[in-house]
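Reopening this one. Same input as before:
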Amino acid sequence: MSGPSAADVPAHRPAEGAAAGRPEDRTLRPYGLRCEHRTTPLGIDEPAPRLSWRLASDRRGDDPVAYRVRVAERPEELNGGGQLLWDTGRVADPHATAVEYTGPALLGRTRYHWRVSVWPAGTAVPAEATSWFETAFTDAGAWRASWISHDPHPVDVMDAPTEGEFALDDHGLAPCPVLRRTFTGSPGTHARLLVSARGLYEVRLNGVRVGDAELAPGWTDYHCRVQYQTYDVTELLREGENVLAATVADGWWSGFVGFEPRRAGAHYGSFPQFLAELHLTGPDGRSTAIVTDEAWRTSTGVIRHADLLMGECHDLRHAADGWELPGFDDTGWSPALVAAADHHLLVASVDEPVRAMAELRPCSVRRISPDAHIVDFGQNLAGRVRLRIGELAAGSRVVIRHAEVLDESHQLYTANLRTAAATDVLVGDGRQDIVFEPRFTYHGFRYAEISGVPELAESDVVAVALHSDTTWAGEFDCSDAELRRLHDCVAWGQRSNFVSVPTDCPQRDERLGWLADAQVFLPTAALNADVAAFFTKWLRDIDDARTPDGGFTNVAPRLVGVCAEGAPGWGDAGVIIPWHLYRTYDDPRFLARALEGMRAWVDLIHRHNTDLVWRRRVGPHFSDWLAPGTPTPRDVIATACFAHSARLTAKAADALGQKDVADHYHRLADDIRRTFAEHFVTVENTAAAPPAVRIAGDTQTGYLVALAFELLPADLVDAAAHRLAEIVESAGPALLTGFLGVALAAPVLDAHGRADLAHALLNRDEVPSWRFPLRHGATTIWERWDGWTPDTGFRAPSMNSFNHYALGSIGEWLYRGIAGLDQAPDSTGYRHLRIRPHPGALRHASARHESVRGTIEVTWERHGGRLALRVLVPPGSTADVYVPTTDPRSIRESDVAPRADDRHITLLATASDHVLYRVSSGAYRFTATHPPADGHAGTSPADRPETALTPSRRTSGPAAKPSSARSHEEDTP
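Same output, byte for byte:
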């Protein structure tokens, strides 16, 4: 777990033109300190943690020239009050924003304090910031706890159920065990609680909930790894009797997961188990431990079943009030069952947990019967409902059903949930003032049908959004209201589907970590949020899931019922994701940990396809999944992916300094590239120039993969790009691509001079398009372009999610293309930026990204025939700035013409539609003449009224905004 950052946080933005520095300017300083990509992590087991920082300055060119990192066990030792554990000394490295610890072995369960000092040029006094991290167990052999549970065997006798005894359907699930242990505490005791479960857990100490993690310890392949978390519970201890209490649920361990009817659940175990160690250190330094063992007492409580897919039932008639407090009589409870005592698979969590990240009030509450209402929260999300009830008679039920959309009769549409019941139930016992909120389930929904409550006010109900706590790092804005809504849809799709693993959808009986969905969306996700720690964890899931012959799978964690052999574009994610993370976060460990698997994957394909056309061992070969147009030949897609994976593997080896390995895979990639051209590319030489190029199938996706992965001879690239533009234009212009092609479309068109076509695709409002769902009330990205249309209604419910981020990969181009915030192709960690906005017909746009080096901002606006472009470049970075204009002489920077002797601004090139400058770090404001926006109604609809919505969408109420959505780690300058 982690707490607030102790880093120095920049207080304000630098002013443009702050070259020499004004008295109020703040000079170079570090902030945003991280250990293992997390703020003050509590409980890590990485022996050589990576310590990183970001930089800010209000002055131009105020770049670092050296750094120093010190680590100590006590904070005063950093100030010269004792011996340091580790000291890098002053290191001359102007590009450094991180260092790996190489000091003496770190002790287990110990807090370490660290400080980074950064020197700007010409200054003897460094700027400094301090933070800390704390280790967990550094040796699995240090564990003393046992895995315990309530005895899962059936009772000796059974009576016929009475009305209300079972809530609609218990789905064969057992009640959630509750466990408790008393111990004696004393003043001044330092306490750390290490907790895990095979299943899900919630822990309380003296009745107070420990931490705020939801669905902990998270999903892994429990045959390979089981995560645990560490909590500081010092403040929860009391003098005398204390009670450590826990509730556990099936979760991914023994609950329903996936869609395989022959193995719908219990993939890893048959009943949940709990493991904990509470370490108490007194003022005299002596330690004791309270561990899970047979001394614990167990029973079952109000939660009669809890399942991620099916929902949760609370029966208050089974309440044992005060069971988690001292003084409770547990003599009627049973001794805990010791289920196991193994610890070798336990690992400390490497990412932040799922948390309750936002609360949304209803847009409307509509009565549908005397005791039933449908609540519209105005936003599709992943989470649960919190309901306040004045009174509920003994045996009476309140039932909450969830759905993403409404059908034509204005009732919940649940066919697309498939076998997921997504139903939460409360059974009353006559008490009053009840707050019902499930604890071990989550649903994908916008609407909730609540029955059993005759009167329901908007203030009685709230939607609680759950997702992994990834620090939000990006912002996008523009003059087009629908594009702003599109960005919001992309963001909510990301939030809804980053729940311990990157899932495909949060509502139906699937919710799996599909590799292709994640790899196509990652460039967008990494601009929206800091996902370094989140994907660090999931890359381990991917590695755990590898097949014995080296293959990557289609989902991770691996699950029975999903074909294990990775398909083209799906298995390739095991190569593509580490490479993109390395480029984004400048952390070579992403590659070092993955290179073995990357090589094994490419070698596997090569071994079974010696002719270099990937036709064998293709798994289920999903092709360009859900593409609405003519199918792209499968061997075209597969061979392109083969070439791409081989090339990225070579680049990874290059980055790690493994030249022989890199040379091998570069040669292989070159050979596949030639084979691709020989097998799939034809050239028709005519009198006209350039020659006509055709790629087998003549589909958009075929050209996109060939161009994006650089598979064509140089003299055919322009012709292929021309043909791509032709078939995009002839389709509408429209995209006829699926999951794999859509992520490439706008970037490829942009790279080949057709940003205008990328804009045209964004402006389209017929199927297939991004605006069509928006016009019909979408608040997240749909799985299908045509998930619902006025003519056809809903598509097949077996595959029709309304919260599925894959087609939201366009979000990358909103940042990089429209706003112009990008890094150069050879840059890592945004060391060298490329600022190249494509205004199209928009009046203004802006983007901000909190990178590993610091804050990057781009804002442009057009007014009165001039364009103003503002850029913020973090210290240690440079930027190539493309100022869009046809009149180079009109350019001004901070209201003056750029000077040839300005060391911060260098003219690189002049073209017909832009002038290219290279600038140093700092803030800049360029202005130049530029044609005004054409005012086309379809491109800037900021003031246009929203189109009437279909009966299955929200018809009234304000746009949903979370009441709280800040990350626990947010420390943006």
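So the earlier flakiness isn't reproducible anymore. For the record, Confidence is low (pLDDT under 50) at residues 2-9, 17-23, 935-972.
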